[in-house]
Amino acid sequence: MAAPQDDPLILVGRVAGGFGVRGEVRISTYTEDPMSIAAFKALKRQDGSPALTIASARKTKDGVVCRCSGIDTKEAADALRGLRLYVPRSALPQPDEDEFYLTDLVGLSVRHVATDVLLGRVKSVQNFGAGDILEITPDLGGPTWYLPFTRAAVPEVKIGEGLILADPPALVGEPEGSAEDEELGDRD
Question: Would you identify the CATH topology of the domain 9-91?
Fold first, then answer.
């Protein structure tokens, strides 16, 4: 059962394993307030099928511990380790005017802030441990490339306009500075 395209699923947590001997489930949450995951009650798998239904939850230092319908043993809870938990985008609160969810960036056009040249479209948002990065697919073809999602590299995001203004850092092997600096040469 796939999620409708107009209401994508958003990753909100991951099962870290069992807790205790009565089948409680430890969940590492990706929400600002770990306990907000309990308000969603019915969590889904990435394909949209049911994953867990939370009956009760309590906060721990690493997330939450939940009692879930149909999970009654430590073995059953441990078997869920690694399960990613999703909710429909429509279940999340609307962000403030100048805020957005990272998933809202996918599909936006990326233009160079100074030249207005189209650089491509956001294919995905990744985080390999050093911060969020945008995977960009060039509109004219070619390999995807990554743009750090920092204020310096992405000075402006215009969700309503479907646009990201970017100032990508120089790539390895490219000269630093503007093209005008190159033309002038080094004047020591």
Answer: Elongation Factor Tu (Ef-tu); domain 3 (2.40.30)
